[in-house]
Amino acid sequence: MISRNRRTFILHTAGLCAALATAGRALAGPALVDENDTTAKSLGYRAKASSVDAGKFPKYAAGQRCASCRFYAGAAADASGACPMFPGKAVAADGWCNVYAPRA
């Protein structure tokens, strides 16, 4: 027969492990957009703006990148940030897509 203290210890340990596993995922942040994602392909997203095919996307101009787009929600020093074009995911600060609009 298991004592009450041992049972309580096991339950608390299991609860702590579950909490730590969940916290690790919550702190990791959203995944980066994959260039092969359906939405990314339709918007011409590239993780490196320098790799954009200007012939295919004539709207692109050198120097444009997600970090200077008005839709980018990351800080200037961040390597990636949120974008409403890709809900639940992050875009690279050095990326670009066809929805690019300069900040006012």
From TrEMBL:
Top-level taxon of the source organism: Bacteria
Spell out the SUPFAM superfamilies in the cross-references.
HIPIP (high potential iron protein)
Q: Which keywords does UniProt give here? A: 4Fe-4S, Electron transport, Iron, Iron-sulfur, Metal-binding, Signal, Transport
| PROSITE patterns referenced in this protein's UniProt entry, alphabetically | HIPIP, TAT
Q: Which InterPro entries match?
A: High_potential_FeS_prot, HIPIP_sf, TAT_signal
| Keyword Iron-sulfur assigned | yes
Q: Which residues form the High potential iron-sulfur proteins family profile domain?
A: 27-104
**Signal sequence region:** 1-28
Outline what the protein does: Specific class of high-redox-potential 4Fe-4S ferredoxins. Functions in anaerobic electron transport in most purple and in some other photosynthetic bacteria and in at least one genus (Paracoccus) of halophilic, denitrifying bacteria.
Q: Which family does it belong to?
A: Belongs to the high-potential iron-sulfur protein (HiPIP) family.
Q: How does it assemble?
A: Homodimer.
User: What is the official name of this protein in its record?
Assistant: High-potential iron-sulfur protein
